[in-house]
Amino acid sequence: MTVIGPRGLVLVLVGVLVSATLAAAFTVAFSGPAVAVGVPAPRATPRVSPMNGPSVNVTLHGNAGLGWGLTNATITEPGPNLSVHLGDTVTLTLIGNDSAPHNWFIDYDNNLGPNGEEPSSPDFNTAAMKVVVWSFVADRPGNWTYRCRYHPSSMTGTISILPEPQPLNLTLYANAARGWGKSNATISEPGPPIVVFAGTNVTLTLIANDSSMHNWFIDFDNSLTPNDGEPSSPDFNSGTVSVVVWSFVADRSGNWTYRCRVHPTSMTGSILIIGGTAPPPPGVMLPIISAIMLGALGVVFVFAVIYHVRAVRAAKRMR
Fold first, then answer.
1. Which residues of 128-139 are buried (b: 16+ CB within 10 A; e: fewer)?
2. With 50 as the cut, is the pLDDT of residue 51 above it?
3. Less packed terminus of the chain by CB within 10 Å, N or C?
4. Same domain, yes or no, for 267 and 179?
């Protein structure tokens, strides 16, 4: 039988407690997002409608042997280069130039066939559907090949999805009792939802529909008042400024509430910022891990002192 002396026992205890500390720390860090006490989490992200971004309209004519063209007279292989911005809603009008069935899709993985995550149109130039008008959201930056799934090598082209979203210009009308609207006639509570990609430069034209002073801000922490780091417009309808034209960059992904700081509960709406990196919860992760580690190290220190005293006493008895 192996007998563990006092020092060995201390080392074993140290190892056990340190392992427990690391396990607890990793559990806190990776089990899911921490939530700060008293700070509501952002709204759950809803499914994004394909008609939220700036609109780009393109007509393409397809021919199995000739390729793609913007007109019947300009069909070539490869077809025309298409260029759009991240977040654009791209609406294609697809027309056949021959008797063969066709389809249009973006071949992200270059395997010559549409997969589940690749935008892929319904078939067109068929008995059931001669012309297709179909939309998708350009949400993957890069230079990609588009094809026909029936003729993947003879009907190709390049689509460039630029990483910078198009700027968004939006006019909002404000009323203390009725909320926000894109026009005087459409003011409601909550106001119109805003959907943008992270990095979008948003310019708001803010106009009052009543005699009250107003402001517009994104309430990241749901505190009902603008704080540091929250985009907040100048006041408008204040007597000196009746209309404000103001810009900010949507750089914090999530589904948030926008408000008026003067009327934070009667003038609200949602703004969904897609993509980018979500901010870490404020002041939660590190303090929890640090507290666990400090507590464990304190226990280790106490055990070390106890066994050191016992070891010294035992050594004196042996003398």
1. eeeebebebbbb
2. no
3. N
4. yes
Contacts of residue 230, Cβ cutoff 8 Å, sequence gap at least 6: 217, 218, 219, 220, 221
Spatial distance between the Cα atoms of 61 and 148, rounded to a whole number of angstroms: 11
Instruction: Quote helix, strand, coil % in the chain, to nearest 5.
Output: 20, 35, 45
Structural domain including 213 reads: 168-274
Q: Would you say residue 80 has pLDDT above 50?
A: yes
Q: What's the CA gap between 187 and 204, in Å, rounded?
A: 16
Q: What is d(CA 226, CA 219) in angstroms, rounded to the nearest whole number?
A: 6
Strands in 156-162's sheet, in edge-to-edge order, are 82-85, 156-162, 142-147, 105-107
Assigned domain for 50 exists: no
Amino acid letter, residue 43:
R
The answer to pTM > 0.85 is no
| Overall residue count recorded for the chain in this entry | 319
Angle at 265 between CA 261 and CA 270, to 5 degrees: 85
